Amino acid sequence: MATVELSRLRRTLGRWYRVNGRHDLPWRTTRDPYAVLVSEVMLQQTQVSRVHPRYETWLKRWPTAESLAEATTGTVIREWAGLGYNRRAVNLQRAAREALEKFGGIPTEEAKLLTLPGVGPYTAAAVACFAGDKRTVALDTNIARVVARTLLGEATARVPHKQKLKEAAKAWLPKRGTRAHQLAAMDLGATVCKASSPACEICPLKSDCTWLAAGQPEADPTPNGKVTAAPFKSTARFARGQIVAILAKDSPLPASSIAAQLPEEHQENCGRYLEALAGDGIVTFRKEHWGLAEDL
Ligand code: SF4
């Protein structure tokens, strides 16, 4: 897309954002890298509406990286309950501890952020951009979809397009005001350019959207056909979550007591799940009993 069109798209998106952006999300009103990191880790696999109250409770309990670092891991896992993927909580605390040790606090430089546990390229870029105002591409699923459709004429932001997407998103970044620009694209993707039902008729970018102009062609079919997911309750992830919930209520417990509280189909694998959770630093074993990390 020509430079002049990109700059028109930027301006249009910016005007839309000033009126329609989700400016009141609590992690949007801070530039504290610790608070932004907490929000980004919570948002990795959990919806905004569920994260909102939990983020506020978390920051009341642990307002700084120092306070989180000092808590026991078991307490941190209990506070995380219901957000899913307990490893995120363990890694968040490890990141706080490591960042304090190595950098004296949560950094805003991407390279430093990437050295911390649980911080991948998107989270590092998001903290650098949203807390540090760094000019870097933070390609979350919403931004990626808007870039794919508007600039590349692709229905989805599927993996084969990753490099193309990154380049297009980078070319679209303004020289200044990267933070607002990317938050705007994120909000447009979350509220207007939705995955299955884009509201093109009210979209500020509709006159310049390549995908709309091309007649909204469908994405290529999945090469290996549709994969049917197993019911969640029969997955190892579900069983591991159950184990953490059991130990959060009552611990220490022997493996046999934990297994007895699991659904029948998971009981024989209880030992394997406990080992995996121990490997992730979520549970610990002492004197024939299991408990949440640092509880025993
Ligand atoms: S015109 Fe439609 S497809 Fe294009 S960015 Fe807007 S909502 Fe998305």
Tag the structure with descriptive keywords.
Endonuclease III, domain 1; Arc Repressor Mutant, subunit A; binds iron/sulfur cluster; Endonuclease Iii, domain 2; mainly alpha
Structural commentary:
- There is one protein chain.
- This protein is mainly alpha-helical and 296 residues long.
- It has three domains: 32-130, Hypothetical protein, domain 2 (Endonuclease III, domain 1, Orthogonal Bundle), CATH 1.10.340; 141-213, Endonuclease Iii, domain 2, CATH 1.10.1670.10; 232-292, Winged helix-like DNA-binding domain superfamily/Winged helix DNA-binding domain (Arc Repressor Mutant, subunit A), CATH 1.10.10.10.
- Helix content is 55%, strand content 3%.
- The protein is built from 16 helices and two strands.
- The protein has helices at 3-20, 33-43, 48-61, 65-70, 73-80, 87-103, 110-113, 121-130, 141-152, 162-172, 178-191, 210-213, 236-249, 255-260, 264-267, 270-279; strands spanning 283-286, 289-292.
- Strands 1-2 form a two-stranded antiparallel ribbon.
- Helix 9 (141-152) packs across helix 11 (178-191).
- The longest helix is centred in the first third of the chain and has 18 residues, at 3-20.
- Iron/sulfur cluster (SF4) is lined by residues 146, 149-150, 192-193, 198-200, 203, 205-206, 209, 211-212.
- Iron/sulfur cluster is lined by residues 146, 149-150, 192-193, 198-200, 203, 205-206, 209, 211-212.
